[in-house]
Amino acid sequence: WEVMLAINIPLDQDARRADVQASAARLAAAEAGQVALALELQQSLAGTLAAYEAAGEQEHLLRTRLRPQAEAALRSALAGYRSGRDDFTTLLEAERQTRSARAEHLRAQVEQRLRVAELERLVGEPL
Q1: 11-to-5, 15, 16, 17, 83 alpha-carbon distances in Å
Q2: How far is it, in rounded angstroms, from Cα 70 to Cα 75?
Q3: Inter-residue contact 69 to 55 (CB < 8 Å)
Q4: Are 36 and 63 in contact (CB under 8 A)?
Q5: Which is deepest, 10, 15, 85, 115, by most CB within 10 Å?
């Protein structure tokens, strides 16, 4: 009869515990970073969405109110100039206001499209 007995004595238990704790700390840091990134993305998305809505409202006001008013003023100034009621500077001022309204409308459209592109970038797909 022969009997053999083997015992493993873990001498590096402290090192293993330190490795486990370090891994847990790295995992917690990575999760915290992920949460922070998600919050940052959410804030950026909310800000861009608000800017898009503001640009849309501005574009709507320019399209429905300011441009038609400026174009009506130009038609009125042109009719007044033709009939001799208004002078040429009034006509030029009306033309300047009409061009300015058109330029503002185009700027608002560009701003709105830029915000759509930013939203698409944040979402990661076309809207």
Answers
A1: 19, 9, 10, 12, 107
A2: 9
A3: no
A4: no
A5: 115
**What CA–CA distance (Å, rounded) separates 37 from 43?**
10
Contacts of 78 (CB under 8 A, 6+ apart): 91, 94
Burial class (CB within 10 angstroms; exposed 0-12, middle 13-18, buried 19+) of 112 = buried
- pTM: predicted TM-score of the whole model, two decimal places: 0.69
Mean pLDDT of 26-34: 95
Residue 2 lies in a domain: no
C-alpha 15: how far from its chain's center? 49
Handedness of CA 7, 12, 18, 22 (dihedral sign): negative
Which domain range does residue 92 map to? 13-123
Reported as a single tens digit per residue, the pLDDT across 58-83 is 999 999 999 999 999 999 999 999 99
Q: Are 64 and 92 in contact (CB under 8 A)?
A: no
- How many domains are there within the chain? 1
Segment 90-102 shows an average pLDDT of 95
Task: Tell me, yes or no, whether 6 lies in a domain.
Answer: no
